[in-house]
Amino acid sequence: MSGRWPGGHDHELAAILDRELDRQNTTLQLIASENFTSPAVLATTGSVLTNKYSEGYPGRRFYGGNQFIDQAEDLARQRVTALFGAEHANVQPHSGSNANLAVCLALLQPGDALLGMRLDQGGHLSHGQAVNISGSWYQGVTYGVTRTDERIDYDEVRDLALEHRPKLIIAGATAYPRVIDAAVFRQIADEVGARFLFDAAHYAGLIAGGAYPSPVPLADVVTFTTHKTLRGPRGGCILARAEHAKAIDKAVFPTLQGGPLEHVVAAKAAAFFEAAQPEFRTYAAQVVTNAEALARALATEGFRLVSGGTENHLVLVDLRPFDAELTGKAAQEALDRAGITCNKNTIPYDPRSPFVTSGLRLGTPAMTTAGMGAEEMVTVAGLIARVLRATDDEGSLAAVRDEVAALCSKFTPYSGQ
Ligand SMILES: *Cc1c(COP(=O)(O)O)cnc(C)c1O
């Protein structure tokens, strides 16, 4: 880090950045929504483009001096529409939540009903939860998964759609290990005259890499984050059918946001370039292969997997059959002490609160970027099981922490910085 950080006398901040770099290099990152960006994405995010005000869109800015900023944003738009085969793109949303809110602002009136997935069964705050603006300005109605196979209950989606006549139906999830059937959602949306938004926040990289079916031909609008499986800078993006282009652009600016983060927009262009390379297809396939390997190895260690396994980049572990007393919260904390970073997560019909939970969510995007394969996933599952069999044994946690550091030293995301 010291080679890249011209911090001058600000040793206090430089030391913090060094410590975070060291944490990323020496501990296991299993948070399903995280990844390691490339040097090009990092450098672009830290570039002089951060200095520029550019409210508006390419060719229609409210400030002068945007000739090169326009080129960067145009490049990002061209690359992302080509990558996903979309008719229109808006690359300005500061985050995935902003992208979703912009879609609501473009397609709904306050008070309209929208139908999204339940938060405690894998959905997202921005899909109509009461604590989020999507559920306070709009009438949020939610569907879930079945108790039997723990897959989305498409019959319930249809029943709720017929009953509530939502103007917008949202598919997409933050903790759902299966492929979502976008064709069924399209059919239901058509049946009730709703628009269909597919939130691909978690899946964008897998879709770009051909490891997850593309919802783009089926949905009116597709939103996603650029920092999860897509491996770009922290931010959001909206793809839309041409008929919605004007409304979407107006919703992002001036309704919701002011000046775009053009250094991040340019870094999105860098990520879209990388995602279009053949190596990225290999990466996306390996992310899924690794998740399958992790799922199998965890099952061998005695863990129950929600829905019985995975078809994407994450697994959701039900801890109760492994240890009825072990909560997601206690498991996350013990794993943290052993250098394994993940998050507690509710499982479908979880008897415990969202602050405690009975589950863990584990993802493979970051480990795969670091170069790990199926063999390492077996090792990782074994380390997790050792920690969770003895969460109070500090000696055992320290031993695992050393093994984690040894493993990470062979798969260092930012070596030599
Ligand atoms: C991560 C995520 C988002 C929001 O992303 P932020 O950039 O954190 O606002 C939206 N939808 C889903 C399904 C997500 O998983």
SSE order and pairing:
Layout: H1 11-26, E1 28-29, H2 39-45, E2 56-57, E3 60-61, H3 67-84, E4 88-90, H4 96-107, E5 113-117, H5 133-136, E6 139-143, H6 154-164, E7 168-171, H7 182-192, E8 195-199, H8 204-208, E9 221-225, E10 236-240, H9 245-256, H10 262-275, H11 278-300, E11 304-305, E12 314-318, H12 328-337, E13 340-341, E14 343-345, E15 359-363, H13 365-369, H14 374-389, H15 394-410
Bound molecules: pyridoxal-5'-phosphate.
Strand tally, please?
15
CATH topology of the largest domain: Aspartate Aminotransferase, domain 2
The separation of the N and C termini measures: 5 Å
For the CA atoms, what is the radius of gyration? Answer: 22 Å
The residue ranges in which pLDDT falls below 50 over 5 or more consecutive positions are: none
Oligomer: single chain
Strand arrangement, largest sheet? 4-10-9-8-7-5-6
CATH architecture of the largest domain: 3-Layer(aba) Sandwich
Shape, per Cα inertia axes: globular
Q: What string, H for helix and E for strand, traces the elements in order?
A: HEHEEHEHEHEHEHEHEEHHHEEHEEEHHH
How can the largest sheet be summarized? 7 strands, mixed
The average pLDDT score comes to 96
Please give the CATH class of the largest domain: Alpha Beta
- The total of helices stands at 15
Look at the helices and sheets and give the structural class: alpha/beta
Within CATH, the superfamily of the largest domain carries the name: Type I PLP-dependent aspartate aminotransferase-like (Major domain)
